[in-house]
Amino acid sequence: MAESLRDILDAAARGVFPAADGGTTVVPQHGPRDAGVIAFTAHSVVFTDEDEGWVRETLGALRCDALAATMNARFLAAFMARTGRTTDTIDVLLTGAPLAGRPETVLTEVVGPGHPRVVSARRRRDEARVWAADGGVLVLGRGVAGRLEAAVEVAEGARQRGLGRRLATAARQLAGGEPVWAQVSPGNARSLRAFQAAGYRPVGAEALFLRP
Questions:
Q1: 140 and 165 together in one domain
Q2: Same domain membership, residue 159 and residue 131
Q3: What b/e sequence results for 169-207 when a residue is b if at least 16 CB atoms lie within 10 Å of its CB, and e otherwise?
Q4: Main-chain phi, psi angles of 47, to 5 degrees
Q5: 55-58 long-range CB contacts below 8 Å, 24 or more apart?
């Protein structure tokens, strides 16, 4: 039986990746919300409920380097046109193992379902939880294939003090024994540095397609 997207992600969190053979694996979406592409080293995974034949035919028609085909702008545009979905950016995909101990930063959970940050978090994640800190916010929720995803926000006046790193570390401490994932825009160098300083490691690139 072919691997599911969750199987592939669980393996990557353990440091086990698809063969670096220049190939593309196509798997069904885990759920109706999330479709997209994950590019690991020399191997890509396309997760979609569209016909696999269409995916491979479209990639083949690009006549470009197979290693870059799934993240080629023409393929991403064709994917959006085919599915009616949208995408924001190609993100760096990072993961961090669960961590023992209590968060260094004092966190207060935001419990009101109508709070703007809770509403925003729930647009892209299930079971979203939001914590406020002095100068920052931490979000944890179930994203692609049910993985546990973290997002961190730091106010302008609280930057350059290590708060982003502490919040990213707190996500690992609140993970309940499972890996934590983060998607960071490549241009957001501050966030990338914060997650890497908190022990997360880059494992690939991801383009996520969302329903309008």
A1: yes
A2: yes
A3: bbbbbbbeeebbbbbbeeeeeebbebbbebbbeebbbbb
A4: -115, 115
A5: 55/24, 55/26, 56/24, 56/26
- Cα dihedral 196, 202, 205, 210, rounded to 10, equals -60
The pair phi, psi for residue 140, each rounded to 5°, is -125, 135
- State phi, psi for 104 to the nearest 5 degrees: -70, -35
The answer to whether 97 and 175 have CB atoms below 8 angstroms apart is no
Does 29 share its domain with 73? yes
Q: Give me the domain span that covers residue 164.
A: 94-201
- Specify if 119 maps to a domain: yes
143 plus 87 within the same structural domain: no
The reply to whether 70 falls in a domain is yes
Residue 210's nearest CA partner among 91, 57, 85, 115 is: 85
Question: Does one domain contain both 126 and 49?
Answer: no
Q: How far is CA 160 from the centre of its chain?
A: 24
What pLDDT tens digit does each residue of the chain (212 aa) get?
458 999 999 999 999 999 999 999 999 999 999 999 999 999 999 999 999 999 999 999 998 888 899 999 999 999 999 999 999 899 999 999 999 999 999 999 987 666 676 777 777 899 989 999 988 899 999 999 999 999 998 887 778 788 999 999 999 999 999 999 999 999 999 999 999 999 999 999 999 998 87
Cβ-contact 121, 207 below 8 angstroms = no
